[in-house]
Every structure is written in C-alpha cells, then in structure tokens.
Amino acid sequence: MAKKNKFHVPPSRPVYKICSQGQVENIINTIKLLNGEDIDYRKIFCIGFNKTGTTSLHSLFESLGFEAMDGPHWRKTEDWHIHYQFQTFTDGPPSNFAALDYKFPNSLFILNVRNLDEWLDSRVEHIKFRMAAGNFKPKGHWRLSEKSIRHWVLSRQTHHLNVLNHFKDRPESLLVINYIKNPRAADIICRFIKKQPVPSKPYVRSTPAIRDINKIKNQELLDHCYSQLGLSPNETSNDLLCPTLMALETSSQYPNDTKLINYDRYL
Questions:
Q1: What is each CA distance from 189 to 26, 74, 197, in whole angstroms?
Q2: Domains of the chain listed by start with CATH number
Q3: Would you tell me the crossing angle of helices 54-63 and 185-192 to the nearest 10 degrees?
Q4: Are 186 and 197 in contact (CB under 8 A)?
Q5: pLDDT, tens digit, 9 for 90 and up, residues 186-201
Q6: How many other β-carbons are positioned within 10 Å of the β-carbon of residue 5?
Q7: What is the pLDDT of residues 199-242, one digit of tens each?
Q8: Is the distance from CB of 97 to CB of 109 less than 8 angstroms?
Q9: Residue 44: helix, strand or coil by DSSP?
Q10: Strand 88-90, strand 68-70: pairing
Q11: Cβ distance 178 to 113 under 8 Å?
Q12: Residue among 160, 124, 142 nearest 240 (CA)
C-alpha cells in the first residue's frame, strides 16, 4: 500500500507512448467526429493552470478508461497529431482553447481552478523543489521572482475571464471546478462528462506535500506582490477572479469564487 503522502512521478509522459490500441481508436474516432460520422465521441480539455490538481484529474480520467494525455505537449494548439491520439487532456492551459473548441466539435471543457494564495504558494514551492533537485530551467515568466508572481496573477485573471466570456452562452460545454477544495469534485466531473461517478475522489500529488492545511509558506513574499497589484486581503483566496483587477461592469457578471456556483444539477 502506498504511503499517505507519497507523490506521483509518472515514469514517462503519455506523449512518449508507443501507439496503443486506445490511441489508434482515438485517431479513428476523431476522424469520424470531424467527418460528422460519430456524434457521441467528444474530447475533454482541462484548460486551467498547472498546480490546480491536474495530476489528480489525469488519474481520474485514467480510472474512467480514457486514453489520457497529461503534460505540456498538447498545449500547442497546432500539434493536432497529439489531439487525435488522446481523448482527455490535463496540465494546461493550451495556447488557444478557442481553436480547440472550433476544431473538435462537441468537446467539453473544464476550467480547473484553485485558491489564489495556495496556487501561487504551490508554484513557488514547486520551483524551489525543482531547483533543489537540480533540474529547473527558468523560462519566460516561469522563474522565482516578484515580477513573475505578479505576471502569474494577471495571466490567471485574463485567462479565466477569456474562458468565461467564450462559454457564457454555452454553459453546457464548460465546467468550472476547484478539484482540490470541492469534496464532490470527482462526482461533479463524472456527471458533467456523462460517466458514472467513481467510488472515491482520486488525489495524487506530482510533488511532495509542502505545507500544513490552510498554511502558506511564502506569505510575506506573496503579500508584497498583492500590495504591488493593489489586491485586498479578502480576495487573495478567491479561486476564480479578483474584482480589483476588473472593471466594475465586468466584476458583476461572474462569481469570484466557485463556492458561489450551484452544482446541484450534477449531484
């Protein structure tokens, strides 16, 4: 039996698999879908950021029997060969989720979110973990600096708003969920994608546990970044949007946190 806090390190990213029967079937089903021959087949894209339970989501999809893709390789929207081979995709967001929506009809999208403070803290600790292991290569804004943290906050806000705006007239195609915080998240996702709920909610770590529950390890650093962005203390735990970063007319359109979303239709 695995230890309680043992974290998951996949032996190989799915993209490196030798073409399996499942991948071949996905290619065939995708071609049928694009030719209008198979209306029951659909892709499932998790388009939230990393460090929002993506490894657990991948584990959930595998347990449901999907040929599941986890990792950065599918994020390039033009890499259609990867999108043909798999049915579910985690560890986003992709470079252009709207293009995927257009390319693959009937797809379902999951915006996986996490409390802002926990998400930032997890990212900072992930980088520290990788640096200590000697396998971290800074790239763009994926580095340990206040400038990068501020960029993460603003990019998250922009992406979440873009997703909500894109699907505002098609709520049946989008599920917004905090997989880590919501104890019914697995059931809700299963019902959203028309699958029978699993016996228990998978929870798999990609890195070791870094903090006690409800404790932030890099609070002082994050507080300084919040101050620079003008964020108020009561919005730094929101998992969806920060009102301070939005125009007044926009902030009233969508909930700031998933605790305000009614999931009754999935339960």
A1: 21, 21, 8
A2: 14-255 (3.40.50)
A3: 60
A4: yes
A5: 999 999 999 999 988 9
A6: 8
A7: 889 888 766 666 666 689 999 999 999 999 999 999 999 999 99
A8: yes
A9: strand
A10: parallel
A11: yes
A12: 160
